Batch of 4 targets.
Target 1
Amino acid sequence: MTAPAVPTAPAAPTAAPAPRTVRRRPWGSTVIALVILAVLLFPVYWMVNVSLQEHATSFSTDWFPFHPSFAAYGQALRDQGGHLLISLAVALGSTLISSLVAAPASFALAKFRLPGRGVLLLAAVVTQMIPGIVIANALYRAYNGLGLLNSLPGLILADASLGIPFAMLLMRSFMAEVPDAVIEAARVDGAGRVRTFVSVVLPMSRNGLITGALFSFLFAWSDFLFALTLSSTDAVTPITMGIYRYLGAQTENWSPVMASSVLACLPSVVLLVLAQRYIAAGISGGAVK
């Protein structure tokens, strides 16, 4: 005989999932952020605004260029065009030297067991803490003996001294993360140290290289202290010194001064926009690694 079937209790109904609550950002935080952003960007707006008005002064300037004019930019290019080219040459030369020195030095500090490696890294960090005026005074005495005062190579070397330590510390963090197995595989395939460095390590450290090179360019492009200390002739005057001297000659007409400032900002803005994803990856990677 078969046992009678035991009745089973009906299954309890499954509870419906609770609706997800979406936290909305309060409007107050957004308004405060917009106000702070407007305050930070107001000098940039005012610089562009004054540059588009003819014969603008510190007392009679409209809040908006209702009749924009580019005459100030023409005058700025005539007066400051040579200084822009000098700044470009100094920045490019400094970036090239910084990259050529910092990249192999970073590879050596990251992968070679060098004696005193920690001391070298500490020295690179300490150089970032020394006031620029101290370095400028020391370079002035050295340049006076070497005949590098008022010279383009002198400014390039001086600005490279700022970019090399920063680029070296940044690139080292990337090259330290390159797997040793990849380097050993390249060596087994017959590549020497130089070929391994150029063909394997540098492509894998691209974000760090671009970030270090860009900051080296910005250090040199915006330099004022070295230009003021190591150059006193118009033949070797970067745009920072050109604008500084321009202020004394254009006290009644600020339009050319602001136009020169806008032109001086353009290379930095263009480079930052073009390389922003590499910079973000380079800074975050250098901080985490």
Note: Confidence is low (pLDDT under 50) at residues 282-289.
Target 2
Amino acid sequence: MITKAERRTDSRLAARCAAVASAGAAAIHFAVAPAHWEHWVPSGVFFVAIGLVQLIWVFLAWSRPTALVLAVGVVANAGAVALWVHSRVAGAVFGPGAGQPEAVDAAGICVLLLQSYVVMGATWAWVRRARAEQVSTFGRAVVLLGANAVVVAAVTAGLASGLYGHTPHHHGPAEAQDQHQATHDAPVQGHQHPSEPVGLPREEAMTGPATTPPPASPGLPMVESSLDIDDHHDHAH
């Protein structure tokens, strides 16, 4: 049975702050699980499972933070932090996107901070269990109020990013160049360069309209020309 004096120690206060942070991390994991489930079912199952573990740990750490409970909280959340960092640097170990680094979004950063908070709080509570010091009621209230404010802000930002945010699509170098070229070459409706007459090809607009030479006069037949010359010669005589 835990006495009132034990409930007012800094070790117990650190455990409860860690429990609050674990509840926030669990809320974000539950919120983003459906999107991961649609992408890949095992990924959605993983997010639901880690959310359940964090939620169960909340009740244990708040009511009875034994050494085993605190150790489980430190190991589980430290492993989740390491897995998040690895997925953003080297990509997932297996799955559809294995080997491809994932995008860093606000939801992931918020979960990372909350889980780091759990690790720090649980570690402090674990270390201070043997030499815990008393904390006044006012001091405990201020610390818990600040912890709740930080967690609420992190959960709000994480939920806004996870539920309503859009992950940017990054194009590769070749794809981006082709898209830029297509956009550059596409004609703009209603725009015509002032130096180019409407309806003329580019070559004709640059060199001017092509002039057609006048048709040559048909030449007279050679026989007729010879008769005319003889006729004129006879008249001269």
Note: Confidence is low (pLDDT under 50) at residues 166-180, 190-198, 217-237.
Target 3
Amino acid sequence: MDKLKRVLTGNDSPDEESGIMDQFNEATTFSWSTRIKGFIACFIIGILLSILGSFALFLNGGIRVFAIFYTFGNITSLLSTWFLMGPFNQLKKMFAPTRVVATCIVIAALILTLIAVFVLKTQF
């Protein structure tokens, strides 16, 4: 479990001396069990929001409800990983040179979904 914790937090060497920022970070962060519970709760809420959005497509005028629920469900699912590795480490990994294109495409798709429904007033 400690090895998984080190990999997800980006700390590969367990014997490394910690600086003042690492000590501050350890003093102000959640315990490992709280992080796992937060991840699971946030991920499940994100999945449920996405499923509710998919069911909303069958309702009258459901495309707007779909866009809202589906977008917020995806954002919530993405933010669930912040519980595992922290927001700054997650953002560093998302915008790493090998992942920056995929990250930009996902963010653009989420924004374009909301723009298509609310600004362009797309009707189906």
Note: The CA atoms of residues 46 and 73 lie 4 Å apart.
Target 4
Amino acid sequence: MIRLLSATLVLAWTLAMAALPARAQGLIRDAEIEYALRQVAAPIFRAAGLPASTRIYLIDDDQMNAFVGDARSIFIHSGLLMRLETVDQVQAVLAHEAAHIVNGHLTRRPAAARSAANVAKMGLLLGAAAAAAAGPRAGFGLAVGTASSAQRSLFAHTRAEESSADQSSLRFMAAAGADPNAALEVLEIFRGQELLSVGRQDPYARTHPLTRDRLRAVEGFAAAYPAQPRPPGAVDYWHARARGKLSAFLRAPRWTLSRVRGAQDEVAVLRRAIAHHRQADAARALAGIDSLIRARGSDPYYHELKGQFLLESGRAGAAVASYARAAELAPREGLIQAGLGRALMATGRFSEALPVLERARSRDPFDPRMLRDLATAHARLGQPGLASVAAAERYAVLGRMEDAGIHAERASAQLPRGSAGWLRAQDILAVAPRR
């Protein structure tokens, strides 16, 4: 049962409140990319003492920024991830944001506590996500949002906090085996931003102020933690896959194909297959993904991507088999379960799709596209009350609380009092605006 007033509160208003005007943004939801970021972050989080359940969310925004949402969530913009060329640089950013959590900087901002009172009016965890109709440009699950990614003033760290986070993050990096000098490389990327007009600065320069003193201090800290040679390993591999996939979906297919022409390494083949898929060249796209599956047959994310290619090419029956294999290999991935449910619905197998979508909801209850599919499956199977509950939850996730309340009232009237669905409807009604 969804609990609206839970640990996800801070994240909700983080996404819903915007101090600066910005174009519509959203979250990029993709099982493979999220898994890859977890692998990259794992040694940093262990060194920092953060739980493995700490989430990293990727925002669809070409600006370079990263920030902490709450004690269990870190946000990174796609623009920054694309700019960071090495896994150590990504770990430097994650270590710095982890340090803000560990050092208790979030709890020292009274503005956060005052703003939290407005959470109930702004929606659920992904209040900025409006991704029910994610298109082929981001076929891996782009949620198009309705507001700026964060209220920048909330994350305007003091110089003392930045110095504290710098020291802690370099200690975390050294303990994790990452090169502390990567922190300097990241700061150099942003050097000069503070000389630009406010309107031209990247948000990171405003929320993480750079000064000469800070740069010198970081240089000194880094010197105290000499880099230890680290042979390429799993984190490098997953970092390369995540960047390759993200680039292939966000950049023009012709640009991608020009960059990987003649290359036969795994990430190049992946990028080429995605580019061909986005050009509606199903034969080449499937040939590429099949070659990856032959090399790594137990990789669930390649089977999932093949399912996506097939489903978006109008071959829903074949897509079911690929998604089913992916779900078998990664049964805890809610986004993969949601894809399998979607493929089953495309073949008209609603009774089979329903339990799959319910499993997806139990793993990832804040995926609006999955909630839309779940509502449709309930409706097609003659369960209007449960369909209304799922619709209410979807609208709540999208931040459309008035619509969420309408559907929750409808569900409350149709479902047995005290049933699981009825209780879920009450959760929505507790925070929906009264009519």
Note: The CA atoms of residues 289 and 306 lie 6 Å apart.
